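F.,

This is the one I mentioned.
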């Protein structure tokens, strides 16, 4: 089955064609970063308009690259995300499917992220623990199979990616800030500032990152203030911040694996592109005699391939949208049905 996947939940238009026998046939990504940069964050209305402009030309390109005139099904991100942006993808996907006379299915964005490592040659076996770290979510999930998710812990305030973005802003770096903080941190001295590892002293698997943001601000002000500190100090703050986030995530992943008595960890979502996080989780899992799996770098952040893959698995199991399937800007991951479960229109 060849599935066309459309991702438009936020500021990336991602389109891909996935074949359940041959794997990924073609994919294309357009990032709206330049559109939103001058505002320091995503402007929802501009995001929707840009998806309208870019989605169809990218669909045409992906179909041409994949040598396919008519796929067997269409999958799109139905949520969570920005409502207008989601509606662009949903409307285009459902119109294409109607025209082609093929089934269409709305996919959960975080399930897409969670399954992105399955696009790689080496795939994890179920069950595993997944750390989902994106701009909007930080979650630890026990995964027994597709759609069998148990939420183990999540952020009570800011997501890890959001904390990276806010820290970047304070340090005068552009949006989205994660990669910029990571770059600054490379030349930083990790021992100069001591940042807290929030919610690690007491038991539990929830996260809190908003205090770290405040800590960054206080440290920056004590060192001379925003826009006044030298390059080395900016690097040292970025380094201390990144180390605190990475340590916190590693501690909680270890705790989750011990609690569930599992040895396989999957990390996915934009922050899983962070090299220091990947390096430290790999070390931690080696010590535990386990293994960590992550998507290739281009499938860590939002992309169409993960939506085409996740949609393909559910479409193969017989799921399809009904005529009135809504988009769901808020959609808890653990509300998803098991594979082959109720269709989303139900
Ligand atoms: O998954 P994603 O593309 O979009 C959402 O679903 O939110 O994640 C975007 C987030 C942003 O907050 C961005 O700053 C962060 O991922 N990010 C990173 C890195 N690359 C992207 N954070 C830390 N280090 C990175 N290398
Ligand atoms: Zn995402």
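My design for it:
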């Amino acid at each position: 089955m060849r599935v066309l996947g459309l991702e438009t939940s936020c500021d990336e238009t991602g389109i891909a064609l996935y074949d359940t026998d041959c794997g990924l046939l073609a994919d294309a990504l357009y990032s709206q970063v330049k559109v939103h940069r001058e505002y320091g964050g995503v402007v929802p209305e501009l995001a929707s308009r840009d998806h309208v402009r870019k989605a169809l030309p990218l669909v045409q390109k992906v179909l041409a690259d994949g040598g396919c005139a008519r796929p067997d099904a269409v999958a799109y991100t139905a949520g969570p995300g920005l409502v207008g942006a989601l509606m662009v993808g949903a409307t285009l996907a459902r119109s294409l499917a109607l025209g082609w006379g093929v089934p269409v299915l709305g996919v959960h964005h975080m399930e897409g992220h969670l399954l992105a490592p399955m696009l790689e040659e080496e795939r994890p076996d179920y069950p595993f623990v997944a750390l989902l770290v994106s701009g909007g979510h930080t979650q630890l999930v026990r995964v027994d199979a597709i759609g069998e998710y148990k939420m183990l812990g999540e952020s009570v305030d800011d997501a890890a990616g959001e904390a990276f973005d806010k820290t970047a802003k304070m340090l005068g770096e552009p949006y989205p800030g994660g990669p910029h903080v990571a770059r600054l941190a490379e030349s930083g001295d990790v021992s100069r500032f001591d940042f807290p590892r929030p919610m690690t002293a007491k038991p539990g698997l929830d996260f809190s990152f908003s205090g770290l943001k405040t800590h960054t601000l206080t440290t920056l002000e004590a060192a001379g203030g925003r826009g006044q500190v030298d390059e080395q100090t900016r690097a040292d703050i970025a380094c201390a911040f990144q180390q605190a986030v990475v340590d916190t995530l590693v501690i909680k992943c270890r705790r989750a694996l011990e609690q569930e008595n599992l040895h396989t960890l999957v990390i996915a979502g934009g922050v899983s592109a962070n090299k220091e996080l990947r390096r430290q989780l790999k070390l931690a899992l080696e010590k535990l005699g386990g293994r960590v799996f992550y998507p290739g770098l281009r499938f860590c952040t939002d992309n169409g391939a993960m939506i085409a893959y996740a949609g393909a698995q559910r479409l193969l199991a017989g799921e399809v949208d009904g005529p009135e399937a809504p988009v769901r800007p808020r959609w808890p991951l653990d509300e998803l049905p098991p594979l082959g479960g109720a269709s989303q229109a139900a």
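Residues 109, 113, 134, 269, 302 surround zinc ion (ligand 2) (CB under 6 Å).

Talk soon.
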